[in-house]
Design a protein that fits this description.
Elements: E1 12-16, H1 20-33, E2 37-39, H2 44-53, E3 58-62, E4 64-65, E5 68-69, H3 71-78, E6 90-94, H4 99-108, E7 112-115, H5 120-132, E8 137-139, E9 144-146, H6 167-172, H7 181-213, H8 218-237, H9 247-262, H10 266-283
Parallel strand pairs: 1-2, 1-3, 3-6, 6-7
Antiparallel strand pairs: 4-5, 8-9
Helix pairs in contact: 3-4, 7-8, 7-10, 8-9, 9-10
């Protein structure tokens, strides 16, 4: 499909590339395609501040910036912990694309990975792909981003796809958004809550027996720390779903999980187990199957 129907002059591009020759090359090609508004931030710290202050429609970033790798930041953007739009198209680029770097790019929720130096044709094809064939999103306990499954899994909790709004396309095409951002965000919140409740239950099934016999069990205590993280995410999102009336239960579970981490008392573990069971019933989430890995 042609790019001729798109006008990119209103698209805001965040281009975080610290190497001048690569920054200039990518900017030049995008400018030739009609993009006109560019901002460049070369540090993770600067990007975090700018994301919270400004909305962007496309983010092209080097995998490694002077103060660290971008993968945690991309994950934070996808989870709404940083920035204003979890659906922004994200392209990661690197001079040294290893298998490990490619896996990190997939796991953080980025859309595309470019190997530097990138050609004009690759840039044009990438933009075309994001405009016409962007993958729908999926949600797991740890991941929000493009669905890269070849086919649906038969085991574990089934993961539906979320049609994804595309802010770049909305700015560049007369018809605007094809997918309602508010409805897509509602689905993200709903699915994240369900995945997190599922994950908490699965973890608790393994923590309880281990800590009953050994309150110092290192592996079980790592899982307990993870329950605190999951419960924090649950509290953050539940009020935006139809489970909002269960907010107090979620807050109580988080409070008890923190006590169980801070005070190595078997009674805290027992009470946490009861709260997790109550949460399972309240949310109607079955944890009898294996936990879901990120769908990527």
């Amino acid at each position: 499909m042609s790019l001729d129907i798109f006008r990119f002059d209103r698209v805001r591009v965040l281009l975080s590339e610290p190497t001048p020759i690569f920054y200039g090359a990518v900017r030049s090609v995008l400018h030739g395609m009609g993009f006109r508004t560019f901002q460049n931030f070369e540090t993770i710290a600067g990007l975090r501040e700018e994301f919270n202050a400004t909305s962007f429609d496309l983010w092209v970033t080097n995998a490694a910036l002077p103060d660290g790798e971008v993968f945690d930041l991309v994950n934070d953007v996808r989870h709404g912990r940083v920035g204003r739009d979890v659906f922004i198209p994200v392209i990661v680029q690197s001079l040294n694309v290893t298998q490990a770097l490619a896996r990190k790019t997939l796991d953080c929720g980025a859309d595309l990975l470019w190997r530097l130096p990138v050609t004009g044709g690759q840039i044009s094809d990438g933009i075309d792909n994001l405009l016409h064939r962007r993958r729908p999103f999926v949600v797991t306990a740890d991941y929000i981003g493009p669905d890269r499954r070849a086919s649906a899994r038969s085991e574990g909790m089934q993961i539906p796809q979320v049609p994804v709004p595309n802010p770049m396309r909305a700015k560049a095409h007369p018809e605007g958004f094809k997918v309602d951002p508010a409805e897509a965000m509602r689905q993200i919140h709903q699915q994240k809550v369900e995945r997190v409740v599922y994950q908490i239950g699965w973890l608790m099934d393994r923590i309880g027996p281990a800590l009953t016999t050994d309150i110092e069990n290192a592996e079980a205590r790592k899982m307990l720390d993870r329950i605190v993280l999951m419960a924090t995410e649950l509290v953050r999102r539940v009020s935006a779903t139809h489970f909002r009336e269960r907010s107090d239960l979620c807050k109580g579970l988080l409070q008890q999980a923190r006590k169980a981490v801070e005070e190595k008392d078997p009674q805290h573990i027992d009470l946490l187990a009861h709260l997790v069971q109550a949460e399972r019933r309240a949310f109607g989430v079955d944890t009898g199957t294996a936990p879901v890995a990120a769908a990527r």
